[in-house]
Amino acid sequence: xxxxxxxxxxxxxxxxxxxxxxxxxxxxxxxxxxxxxxxxxxxxxxxxxxxxxxxxxxxxxxxxxxxxxxxxxxxxxxxxxxxxxxxxxxxxxxxxxxxxxxxxxxxxxxxxxxxxxxxxxxxxxxxxxxxxxxxxxxxxxxxxxxxxxxxxxxxxxxxxxxxxxxxxxxxxxxxxxxxxxxxxxxxxxxxxxxxxxxxxxxxxxxxxxxxxxxxxxxxxxxxxxxxxxxxxxxxxxxxxxxxxxxxxxxxxxxxxxxxxxxxxxxxxxxxxxxxxxxxxxxx
Length: 283
What we know:
It contains seven helices and 13 strands. The protein starts with a helix and ends with a strand.
């Protein structure tokens, strides 16, 4: 895909661009006819996932959370999260059952239809659960280039020394984005780690406030999202979650914890560059 993108000029400073539509390198050139399609080999790079049909992804359904403005950079402050190996098998089965109840689900970020991945448990585990997830500590917002150094410096001042702690993901939950264009099936932190994450969100809010940026939600609910669907289908997803909860309880294995991971730092992504924000102080 890198080779395909290299065939076009579609650069912008905002790394949050949600459109993959290429633009011709020179719109004013004189051409005798339409350009030929790119070679098929470019559409299947060596690290592509088997025979997945990327044309079935829902890229066209994306809606930007803010309009692109030349010179703006998207700012996102977050805790990186990796799901441990041991709970992945159960998570795979959970996602497959949800997919059978709610059609039209896609894997977060890679935007691959979940029903394609469900044909192969190993591929589902690798693609849907083997990537880096994010617990957001602030809204994703546009900033200007002259704000970058100040924001990174202040974040490090307020968050540079952190103690390691365990983060417990205890609850399946459904979230809908602000403009009601996407619904998400997520796992939420409601106990272990919640107090620490809340304090970190408050620190990020202080930095945002000093830069006249919108603060995080008044009642933050730390979580990572695994799959999404177009539109507000929260009712359908909540019914599926409730049915799964009843099924688990009937089986006599009510789950107190979905999985646990260790807090391993805070990062700040601005445009295409990621900044490490904190260091660790040991107990």
